[in-house]
Every structure is written in structure tokens, then in C-alpha cells.
């Protein structure tokens, strides 16, 4: 009985001496919970302000706000085509640049016939060096270029080990993504700075957040476009040029690997372009599509090993699905 009384007395003494520490820990826990709640509410507000409110506002006069012409580099890509059509729907004339314009003739005709704007095709192979810039210089001369849109070339996505890539594939990846975006922006940016208005949109990919297995060169290109956008924003944002980095995740398209059906998480290029254009002038770095923004936040919290595991499983499932459909 004495032992029990001694234990109860000891417990009361310990509890009394530690009460201040318990209260402190409770206060720390409450502050941590409150801070997380504030962050969550801020993210929800940002999501609504960026992706929903702009779509409720009446159509903007983009030609008055930025300029009459848009320069689209990498126009063969599904997102770039859809973005060009969305700009044309707002009355913007487009200049479509690609290393192979044979598959863009129909797009140019559709844009011209449907929206009544001019659509110019320019074939530019940036592996030839500075000579690829001449037709672009001639095309933009005397035009009110208000938009520069550079799109990542997703066709250079062989999903191979880095050492298995041929030298030509590596060369094309660098030229079509890094060199093309840099030179096209350099050609048209001075006129934007001179008139004090314009928009530069670099479309890369959300995969720039984490290292991606078997896509080292392409993943590095996405990071370059994202970094270029953020640097240009710091350098020319105060001079009237709005620079935006678009980081989409998976978008439905028809490619060599088969058809990717559209859905809630995987929108069609047209749906994505409509959402992405509504964020122009509001956010300098965004996915452009609100379900992708949720994915973006989840990826930011995800450790690299889990991202790598998921990318391997997804790549294996895609390959098997394409193989079984053959």
C-alpha cells in the first residue's frame, strides 16, 4: 500500500513539474495547426482567384492589351496549336513556326477561315544555326507582336536511357526546345520592351519539379524553359512585358504512342488552352488548369523516390497499353 501511495505521489509531483511543458507543447501544436489552416485557405483562395474568377469575367481585348500578332514556336505541338486557335478566337493574328510545316497547313487554313485572322507559316530548323532566324525576322518586321509562345517539343520523348539516345536525338532536343525558345524570344522581345507591353508564354511541363527516369534530356529542357521564364520576368516584368511559365501535366493528344482520351485530369488541348489563356496577366508561374494545380501541389510534397516509382509504373503501363493495342 505504501508503494502505491509513493507511486501516486511521485506521479503527481512529475505531472505538476511538467505542466508548463505540456502547455507549451499544446501552444506549439495549436500554432502549427493554425498556420497549416491559413496556408490551406490561402491556396484555396489562390486557386479560385486564378482559375475560376477570370473565366466569369467578360472577354478581354487581348489585341489592345498586348498586341495584334502572336509568334508561336513549336506550333506542331497539340497544346501550341490549341493556344494559337484560342488566340485567334480573340482576334489575334498568328505566325506559326515549326521545323516541319507540312502538318500545319490545315491548321493555318482552319484558323483563317474560322476566325478571320491571318495565319502565316514559317519553317525554321534551328539546328542550322543563326540562319534559321532570318525568315522569322522578315515575318515579324513591321508587325505589332504582342505574344511570344514557346512550346516544348513533346515528340522528342523516346523514353530511353540517356546513353541509349542517339546524338541526333540529343541535338534535336537541345535545338528545338532550348535554342528555339531562346532565339525566338530574343528576336521579338525588343519591340515589346520598346512599346511597353507584350506577353511571353513558355509552355514546358510539370515534370520539371522532379527528376524523371529515362527522360533526362527532355526533363532538363522543361527546367530550362521554366527558369528562362522566371528570369525574364525579373528582368523585364517592370517594363510592361508579362512573362508566364506554363507547367501542364498530361494533356490528351493524338501521337505516335496512340490516342490519349480526354477527361477531368487529362483535358483536351482545346480545353487546356482556354483555361491557360484565362490565367495570362494574373500568374507568372502556373499549370494553367486547376486540376493540374492540385497535382502540382501534391508533387511538391512528394519525395523524389516516390515520384520516380510512379513515373516508372506509369511508363510501363503506357507501353503495355500501346503494345496490346497494336
What is the count of DSSP helices, taking H or I runs of 4+ residues? 11
Shape: elongated
| Helix content bin | 55-70%
**DSSP summary, beta strand count:** 9
Query: Which structural class do you get from the secondary structure elements?
Result: alpha/beta
Span from first to last CA? Answer: 82 Å
Order of strands, main sheet, comes to 3-2-1-4-5-6-9
Q: Quick check: average pLDDT?
A: 84
Radius of gyration: 25 Å
Order of helices and strands: HHHEHEHEHEHEHEEEHEHH
- β-strand percent reads 5-15%
Spans of 5+ residues with little confidence (pLDDT < 50)?
255-259, 317-326
Largest sheet: 7 strands, parallel
Quick description:
By secondary structure, the chain is of the alpha/beta class.
Task: Report on the architecture of this protein.
Helix content is 56%, strand content 13%. With 326 residues, the protein is α/β, with parallel strands linked by helices. Strands 3-2-1-4-5-6-9 form a 7-stranded parallel beta sheet, sandwiched between helices. Helix 4 (78-89) links the parallel strand 1 and strand 2. Helix 4 runs parallel beside helix 5 and helix 6 runs parallel beside helix 7 (167-195). The relative contact order is 0.11.
Topology:
Layout: H1 2-51, H2 53-56, H3 62-65, E1 69-73, H4 78-89, E2 93-98, H5 105-115, E3 119-123, H6 133-140, E4 145-151, H7 167-195, E5 198-203, H8 216-236, E6 241-246, E7 254-255, E8 258-259, H9 269-278, E9 285-286, H10 290-301, H11 304-324
Parallel strand pairs: 1-2, 1-4, 2-3, 4-5, 5-6, 6-9
Antiparallel strand pairs: 7-8
